[in-house]
UniProtKB/TrEMBL annotation:
<dbReference type="GO" id="GO:0005975">
    <property type="term" value="P:carbohydrate metabolic process"/>
</dbReference>
<keyword id="KW-0378">Hydrolase</keyword>
<dbReference type="InterPro" id="IPR001360">
    <property type="entry name" value="Glyco_hydro_1"/>
</dbReference>
<dbReference type="Pfam" id="PF00232">
    <property type="entry name" value="Glyco_hydro_1"/>
</dbReference>
<dbReference type="GO" id="GO:0004553">
    <property type="term" value="F:hydrolase activity, hydrolyzing O-glycosyl compounds"/>
</dbReference>
<dbReference type="InterPro" id="IPR051923">
    <property type="entry name" value="Glycosyl_Hydrolase_39"/>
</dbReference>
<protein>
    <submittedName>
        <fullName>Glycoside hydrolase family 1</fullName>
    </submittedName>
</protein>
<dbReference type="InterPro" id="IPR017853">
    <property type="entry name" value="GH"/>
</dbReference>
């Protein structure tokens, strides 16, 4: 049983489309992972990283309803199992197959849930999942900013994308739990904050600071405030759709709240509602506490990075700052269970948020695209070595029951799965009881 703090990295697998769907930005292809996946897994062992955010490419794996090409997933996940590496499986990262279209498609949630169930059946040793990565950011960039996928810019398009993304995530959790009842879900979501630049900007900043919580409010079955309720209803969400989320609140007991934080996550808001980058003002510590106070769930720092600049130490300094914030969060009583530098290698075209296909490396990896270690990689390796045996002894009384891939068939694991399966059956029955009267209950 893996009962220690989770030091993680990830293989960047974003797959949004741009140019009105004509161009697919496949980060695993552009960063060379399809060719060098064995080398990439070797690098994990060099770092002594035992937890990997990773997932098969959705657009080439999910070929149609009930049709899958598992060829790449089979070889890579077989190797992860052999190496006893714990994957946090990222099933949908900013894009869908061409045949689904985009996140405006109302069929997407059910289609994705069937895909998640099929994956869980094929790889029953997998326990940790991020069914859909950064639901808020995906809806924002695709349907509010007009950058990716449907490339729309309206509140209605944003609400439509958001409700479909979150419903897909919720249904996927339910289907996966039927296969693996001790599954844990790490909701990797961007942690944002909006600062009012002047008094006239207070109101738009307040609205944005309420909107940032919508994906997790819906995902965890938390009632939204009255202003956000009106926003959702005006954006086309029905009362029945809203109650769907409220009636799934028991799923939160299987969740770890993943908070992603970058230097771009804080914003200055002007009086007209436009925004500009604010830089690192509050920092991960303060913003994560805001999210924890709202949801009271265990936390994992699931993404951060910074581009290596001319000095060569910029990313190293950012790593140490983030790690100091993790320790501060932990020492103030927030149960934080892991930290992630994202990603293992450099990425491509993230300097323009994948809006253009320039094929320009973004130097944020622990290794460059030739698989040479960067200074931040050496720093992370030392950080893991220094802290990996210290944190468990100073635990804030939370233990995450993560099962190693090669332990999944042990008797005590099987017994625990059966116990959780019975508990989950009871949870579902309790959630379903009020559904018949939901239409008659006023918010």
């Amino acid at each position: 049983m893996f009962r220690t703090f989770m030091f993680a990295t990830g293989i960047e697998n974003s797959i949004p489309t741009i140019n009105n769907g004509r161009t697919r930005i496949d980060q695993m292809e552009k960063c060379g992972h399809y060719r060098y996946w064995q080398t990439d897994f070797d690098l994990l062992e060099d770092l002594d990283v035992q937890v990997l955010r990773y997932g098969p490419p959705l657009h080439t794996t999910f070929l149609g309803p009930g049709h899958y090409d598992w060829s790449f997933a089979d070889v890579t996940f077989c190797e992860l199992e052999r190496r006893n590496i714990i994957p946090i499986v990222d099933l949908c990262h900013f894009g869908v197959p061409d045949w689904i279209g985009n996140f405006q498609n109302p069929d997407f949630p059910e289609l994705f849930a069937t895909y998640a169930a099929a994956f869980a059946h094929r790889f029953p040793w997998v326990q940790l999942y991020t069914p859909i990565n950064e639901m808020f950011i995906c809806a924002q960039f695709s349907a509010a900013y007009g950058w990716w996928n449907e490339q729309m810019r309206s509140d209605r398009a944003f609400v439509t994308a958001l409700k479909h993304l979150v419903k897909a995530n919720v249904l996927a959790m339910e289907r996966i739990l039927k296969v693996r009842p001790d599954s844990l879900f790490v909701q990797s979501e961007s942690s944002e904050y909006f600062h009012a630049e002047n008094p006239k900007a207070i109101k738009p900043a307040e609205i944005m600071n309420a909107r940032r919580f919508l994906s997790l409010d819906l995902n965890y079955g938390r009632r939204v405030d009255s202003e956000m309720y009106e926003f959702l209803m005006d954006g086309g969400m029905t009362r029945e759709e809203y109650h769907f989320f409220l009636n799934r609140s028991s799923l939160r007991h299987h969740c770890i709240m993943g908070n992603d934080y970058y230097v771009t996550n804080e914003h200055r808001v002007r009086a007209d509602g436009s925004t500009a980058a604010a830089g690192d003002v509050f920092g991960y510590d303060e913003i994560t506490r805001q999210y924890y106070d709202r949801y009271k769930l265990p936390v994992m720092h699931t993404e951060t990075n910074l581009m290596e600049g001319p000095k060569g130490e910029e990313a190293v300094d950012w790593l140490w700052k983030q790690w100091a914030n993790v320790l501060l969060v932990r020492n103030t009583g927030v149960p934080i269970v892991g930290f992630t530098w994202y990603s293992l290698t450099d990425q491509m075209d993230w300097d323009v948020a994948l809006r253009e296909e320039n094929n320009r490396p973004t130097p944020v990896g622990l290794y460059d695209l030739d698989r040479n270690i960067r200074p931040v990689g050496r720093c992370y390796k030392h950080l893991i070595k220094d802290w990996c045996h210290v944190l468990p002894a100073q635990s804030v009384c939370l233990t995450v029951p993560v099962v190693r891939p090669q332990e999944v068939r042990e008797a005590h694991v099987v017994r625990n799965q059966e116990r959780l399966r019975r508990m989950r059956h009871t949870e579902v029955r309790e959630d379903e009881e009020p559904v018949a009267t939901a239409k008659n209950v006023r918010r």
